[in-house]
Amino acid sequence: MSSDFEAYEQDFGTITAEITNKVGRIPKLSGEEKTQLVLNVDKQLEEVRELLEQMDLEVREIPVQSRAMYNSRLKSYKQEMEKLEKDFKRSRIAYSDEVRNELLGDDAGSSENQLIKLREERAHLLDNTEKLERSSRRLEAGYQIAVETEQVGQEILANLHSDREKIQRARERLRETDANLGKSSRILTGMLRRIIQNRILVFVLGAIIVLTIILAIYFNLRGH
């Protein structure tokens, strides 16, 4: 994510440097050339606004421990953008006053000046149309992201539901296994008890037989 932010920073630096240069040239130009330069700067400022929006989105995706540093950098870029807009606004005001004075003070060139004004208005209209189209595309992209996010959320919920059922089945099997182990343990305990009882019985019977043999031998010897 930080690499994307730094790429946006490079674009920001390049475009703002061009804007600064062009804003400084506006007062030195006149006529159609000045009009085109004003429109060009206006368009580039819109690109910078879009860059700042993208940088803001990138900052939100950066891990919290690193986010403060990028927020500070983004804040300085926004301040730089405000200064550029103010400088451009002053240049445009001076430019508008100059055009108005030319229209009012030069009757011989009034038709040409009116034509320039119409071209400027037409260029502004086209520029505004482009802005509306870009805004519409961003809205469509945002809607698409929302739809995709909803689909992903539904898939996650379905997976969680499936995982929950699997866990419940595993718990049931575990309980059954535990019950079977308890039953097997009781059976083995009973078998062991009977084995011990049988061994004791065999031992007792063996002892009785041995004792009987000893007594028989003893009484047999005494009879002789």
UniProtKB/TrEMBL annotation:
Residues 34-180 form a coiled coil. Keywords: Coiled coil, Membrane, Protein transport, Transmembrane, Transmembrane helix, Transport. The chain crosses the membrane at residues 200-221. SUPFAM superfamilies: SNARE fusion complex, t-snare proteins. It is a single-pass type IV membrane protein. CDD domains: SNARE_Vti1a. GO terms for biological process: Golgi to vacuole transport; intra-Golgi vesicle-mediated transport; intracellular protein transport; macroautophagy; retrograde transport, endosome to Golgi; vesicle fusion with Golgi apparatus. The keyword Transmembrane applies. It is found in: Endomembrane system. The keyword Transmembrane applies. One of its GO terms (molecular function) is SNARE binding. GO terms for cellular component: cytosol; endoplasmic reticulum membrane; ER to Golgi transport vesicle membrane; Golgi apparatus; late endosome membrane; SNARE complex. Residues 124-191 form the T-SNARE coiled-coil homology domain. Pfam families: V-SNARE (PF05008), V-SNARE_C (PF12352). InterPro entries: GOSR2/Membrin/Bos1, SNARE, T_SNARE_dom, v-SNARE_N_sf, Vesicle_trsprt_v-SNARE_N. Belongs to the VTI1 family. This is t-SNARE coiled-coil homology domain-containing protein. The lineage of its organism: Eukaryota, Metazoa, Chordata, Craniata, Vertebrata. The gene is vti1a.
